[in-house]
Amino acid sequence: MKTGTVKFFNESKGYGFITDDNTKEDFFVHVTGLNGAQIQQNDKVEFETQEGKKGINAINVKRV
Question: Any idea which UniProt keywords this protein has (predicted)?
Answer without folding.
Answer: Cytoplasm
